[in-house]
Amino acid sequence: MPTASQFTGRRIKGMRSSLSFANLPLLGVVLALVVYGLVVVSSATQGLEEYSLARQLFGVGLGIVFMVLFWRLDYRKISHLIVPMLIVDVLLLLSPHFPLIGVTAKGATSWINLFGLQVQPGEPAKIVSILLIAAIVAQYRGSIDSGREYLKVLGLCSIPFICIMTQPDLGTGLVMLIIAASVLFVGGANRKWLLLTCAVCITMVAMVLFLDPILDARMGTDVFLKDYQMNRLLVFIDPSLDPTGAGYNLEQAKIAIGSGGLTGKGLGNGTQSAMGFLPEAPTDFIFCVIGEELGFLGASGLLVLYLLLFIVAFDIASRSFDLFGSLVVAGIVGMWIFQVLENIGMCCGLMPITGIPLPFMSYGSSFMLTNFMAMGLLLSIWRHRIAPSA
């Protein structure tokens, strides 16, 4: 029969084993974010028939299931599956165009109908794209100096962006570009080639903005950008251009955040979202609901949670024994940081409105599923952080 000291020793050993298996700081931060998000979403969806807290809870539950599956997965075994991952990624991103299941809404074909449920395949495709791009770049072992090799890698990394723009979904397309840039930067791509790529992209964007109205007039249809996308960019440059039209969302977003003051009006007491002045409050403009109802303190608390999330993720990347794991973390963190900066920036008038949601906070089952899958990958990398020979 074991003695008290032996029992205590086994208990301590078991606790150490659990700590090595699970990253408790990561789980704690994400738990806080999810609970925070559910509380705010429950307030933002009051009286809105098209939204349901039950559906958000379903997304969280399904996300936890996938998080555990990815957590149990040995991520190292998929680093060589580049072709299968590329096929899956392309099929996911093009699936909204498939007959019978494709759904068009708000000017974009970005959804599919599966057994009565509308799913946005571009969301899980983000995770596949992270794994795909990380696997491609990891083959170069931290150094991509050859211009020819860089162009080859860049071409492969551009495939998800090209596919998503056929829908078109500019917000998700930008996320794909940031994922690729983050992985290439950490993966050792020559800084000269990266800067040149950025310069080319900026030049192309400027040309598109200049030529788009001309081509639209001659062709009689939208060529590059939809009218609402162009209007959003123009309003971002000059908010007073159309305050009751294209600039309405931006004006209402700033009013909501500014009216919250230091401590906010209290949960459920926000007027901008409750009275319908703030469109898409539970999704794109969830940060405005936080600013109005919980004030500067509530918004600051959310930023602190995101900062802790990024710090823990960077720590996992630094402890990964292989380059592939570090690159996967780079893609995930790059995706999250861009989404946080863009979403909060557009709510404050510092970034153009693109419809990019806020991680773990915005309403949407597909989006929640993507975040939990990313969590599962981080936990898998943490779990397998020691080399097999160790």
Note the topology:
Elements: H1 4-21, H2 24-44, H3 53-72, H4 82-94, E1 102-105, E2 108-114, E3 117-119, H5 122-138, H6 147-164, H7 170-186, H8 191-219, H9 227-237, H10 248-259, H11 271-274, H12 286-319, H13 323-348, H14 365-383
Antiparallel strand pairs: 1-2, 2-3
Q: Care to describe what's here?
A:
- The chain is mainly alpha-helical and 390 residues long.
- The chain contains 14 helices and three strands.
- It has a three-stranded antiparallel beta sheet, with no helix packed on it.
- A hairpin with a 2-residue loop joins β1 and β2.
- α2 (24-44) packs antiparallel against α3 (53-72) and α7 (170-186) crosses α13.
- The longest helix is centred in the last third of the chain and has 34 residues, at 286-319.
- The relative contact order is 0.15.
- The model is unreliable at 4-18 (pLDDT under 50).
Shape: globular
Residues in helices, as a percent range? 55-70%
Number of strands: 3
The helix tally amounts to 14
**Sheet with the most strands: spatial strand order:** 1-2-3
List the uncertain runs: 4-18
SSE string: HHHHEEEHHHHHHHHHH
Question: What share of residues are in beta strands?
Answer: under 5%
Structural class: mainly alpha
Overall average residue pLDDT: 85
Q: Rounded to an integer, what's the Rg over CA atoms?
A: 22 Å
Distance from first to last alpha carbon: 33 Å
Largest sheet: 3 strands, antiparallel
Which features characterize this protein?
390 residues, 14 helices
